[in-house]
Design goal:
Layout lengths: L18 E2 L6 E2 L1 H12 L5 E5 L11 H15 L17 E5 L7 H14 L6 E4 L11 H4 L7 E5 L22 H10 L7 E7 L11 H11 L5 E7 L1 H5 L4 H10 L3 H8 L14
Parallel strand pairs: 3-4, 4-5, 5-6, 6-7, 7-8
Antiparallel strand pairs: 1-2
């Protein structure tokens, strides 16, 4: 969602077969409804991203407005499938990820309300995550990250900045710029959830952001980061870039698991499914 108080959805090319609910900026996506349910049936976790580079609302004027917006987001994507104008119709996401890239206000009451609504629903486990930039503290989300909100994991964007994976120095036990250790300290001493996991966020290809490194160059970064108990894996941005980078996913998976390339390929095969375009509702 790149609009929250005024809800706006943007699913990039995944939304090509969606239509728009009349009088709103919300997409109606029956194809994504089916796809989400298919992925979830295979054990995949589906998160909805909130914010992004094109988010310009700047947060909320006060706490009550923020809490009302969180309730509306929950109604649009949470477990009550009878609510109106749901982009994924009867599909229910598994949680929400914050990607705020400019300063905002009153996101703590928004996130707190969303977390409360998730935790009150016992039908399944929901997750809350965030994607801060690697410089610490994060300029856009420190109010939430500074012990106010319980996140299940964060996927730190270790790219587009001096502290990214491209600054990693091999063959040394300490790092001058690559700062996973700083985020591990955040996880242990600042995070509200002391069991939070920290993922290495990387560009999945050269076009996804500055600081892309090959899978072979990423392998020692992963090995170094594994020594920290908060290490949770690797996040790649984004799927379209990954799809064009043959072998990258397999090699990173092998670095994470210690498996052979053949086993990695078997576990990470990307599948493209073509469907007819959705028809406009009468």
């Amino acid at each position: 969602m790149n609009g929250i108080e005024t809800p706006i959805t943007n699913f990039a090319n995944a939304g090509n077969n969606c239509t728009v609910y009349s009088g709103t900026q919300l997409l109606d996506c029956p194809q994504l409804e089916e796809d989400i349910k298919t992925c979830q049936s295979q054990g995949k976790t589906i998160m909805l991203s909130i914010g992004g580079a094109t988010y310009t609302e700047g947060g909320f004027s006060d706490s009550s407005t923020a809490e009302a917006a969180a309730t509306n987001v929950w109604n649009l994507f949470g477990s009550d499938t009878s609510q109106a104008n749901r982009p994924f119709r009867t599909a229910v996401v598994d949680g929400f990820d914050f990607d705020l890239e400019s300063t905002t206000q009153n996101f703590v009451p928004f996130a707190s309300q969303l977390r409360s609504l998730m935790d009150a629903d016992t039908s399944k486990t929901y997750y809350l995550s965030a994607a801060p930039q690697c410089p610490y503290p994060d300029a856009a989300m420190n109010d939430m990250l500074n012990g106010a909100i319980s996140f299940d994991w964060i996927q730190v964007q270790f790219y587009n900045n001096y502290c990214g994976v491209s600054s990693f120095t091999s063959g040394t036990t300490t790092q001058n710029n690559y700062n996973f250790e700083t985020w591990d300290d955040w996880a242990k001493n600042t995070s509200k959830n002391k069991n939070v996991k920290v993922l290495i966020g990387v560009p999945a290809n050269t076009g996804a952001g500055s600081g892309y490194i090959s899978a072979s160059a990423l392998a020692p970064v992963i090995q170094y980061s594994k020594q920290f108990s908060s290490f949770g894996g690797v996040m790649m941005w984004d799927m379209s870039q990954l799809y064009e980078n043959s072998g990258f996913l397999d090699s990173v998976y092998a670095s994470l698991t210690g498996s052979s390339a053949a086993k990695a390929r078997a576990a990470t095969t990307l599948v493209t499914k073509t469907k007819p375009a959705a028809t406009q509702a009468p």
